[in-house]
Each structure stands twice: as structure tokens, then as C-alpha cells.
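Need C-alpha cells for this chain, all 283 residues.
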Amino acid sequence: MQTQSLSQPTLASQLRGLSAVIRKDWKQYWRYPLNAISTMLQPLIWIAPVYFMGQAFSVNGQARGFAQYSGTTDFMSFVLLGTVLENFINAVFWGMGYALKNDMDSGVMESNWLTPIPRLLFLVGHSATNLVVTAITSSGMLLFGGLIFGFNASGDVWKAFLPILPMMLGLYGFGFAFAALVMLLREANTLVDLSSFLVQIFSGSNFPVNALPRFLLPVALALPLTYGLDAVRAYLIGTKTILPLPWELALLIVFMFVMLWLGTGAFKWLERRVRVLGALGQH
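Here are the C-alpha cells for all 283 residues:
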């Protein structure tokens, strides 16, 4: 049997390296099963007050004031969908930025960087595990959330993937640049928490963005994620969209290509800067 050296990288060798990163992260995650289960139940606990508050302001089970902003009286399906998509956004933030910080704290960053594997492949591997875990926990969350609060997706599930795919690929590009910034600043917690929180607020993950004050609305409309969340909800629960759906899909595709290009370039530049400063092994 002929072996292929990683010093002569091929597609197969890079896939093996990617597989090794994913398997390692997968084993680490499920090493604490109670923590894994809690990631499914915690979001339901967080949105429970929203459910009861919404019921208190509903008339005959219908949130008519909410419908004026969103186009649907089913506020709980709106919130559940936003929470699920918010989980995927967090998977990119934490899967890329925080994973590199963990490597730096564990003292394995420099040894990992010496392996003949593309740096971006490490980031993809770290976030791929998070995305798979998020898909599993989000499915469970929708199942339990539907049983507890009610969830009615009357639209086309397959069409909902049209905005999801370019949105997630564009997030990967953003994640590349974000991970390099974490390496440079060597502080992940505050950066990840603040960034993910602001993105969730301004993209309207838990409420219609047109409910924002007028001076904040331009910020929300400048985020491509706003249109991604908007389009997914329109396909699944029939909400009214900010822009016509073809326009929103076109914006997401442009966002995908621009962010992949900018994110890759920013990561390479910042990673080179970190090596020049000799800060790769610091934490």
C-alpha cells in the first residue's frame, strides 16, 4: 500500500486533515453529555418568558399588533425560527474564533500551525463540528419547542435552503477574518459575546427589524443576515419581507462571494502579522 506524504498535499490528504480536526472536536464535545443536552434545552428556557409575555398581549391567541410588523400572528414560530438560525450564527462565531483561542490557551497552536495543512482548513474543521452539533440540537429544539409552544411551518422547507446556503457560506468568510482578529487581540470571550449579540439584535433574530427605532434601522438593513432571516421566515411561515424575495436572494449571493474573498484575504494578512509579532503562542 502506497502512502501519500502530507508534505505533498493533495485533496485526499487535506480531507484527511479536515476529518482529523472534526473527529477531535466531536469527541471533545460529547465527552460531557449533560452539557451537550443542555445546549438543546437552554434556548427553550430563554424563550419561555417570550411565549408567556406574547400570550398575555394576544387576543384570542393571535398577536395582532405583532402581525402589523411581521405579517403573521404566529409569533412563537417566528421566534423559534430566529433562535434556530441564531444558533447557526453563533456556531460560526464560537466555532472559529473561540476554537483558536482554546488552542492558544492549550499551547498547541504553534504545533498545529507547523503541520502541512492549510490554516483555513483548521477553521473549517472547528466550525464544521459546531455546525453539525447545532443542526442536531436545533432539530431537537424545534421538536420540543413545537410540542411545548407550538410550531407551524406551512411553507416550503426545501425553498428555505435557498437563502440559508449563501448566508452560511458568507458567514464563513466573515468567520475567517474574525478568527484572525481573535489571534491578534488574544481575547475571545468579550469579542465573541459582544459581536454575536449585536449581530443577533440588528439582524432581527427574535423580532421584526422594522420595530427598531428609525435611527437604528439603517444598521439592520446594512446587515445581509437580516435578509437571510427575513427570507427563511417568508418561505416557512409566510411573513412579509423587507424586499422582494429575488432581491434578498441576490443580496445574499453577493454577500457570500464578497465575504469569502474579504475574509480569506483578511485572515492571511492578520495571520502573517501575528507570526511577525511572535504572538502565536501567547495567550
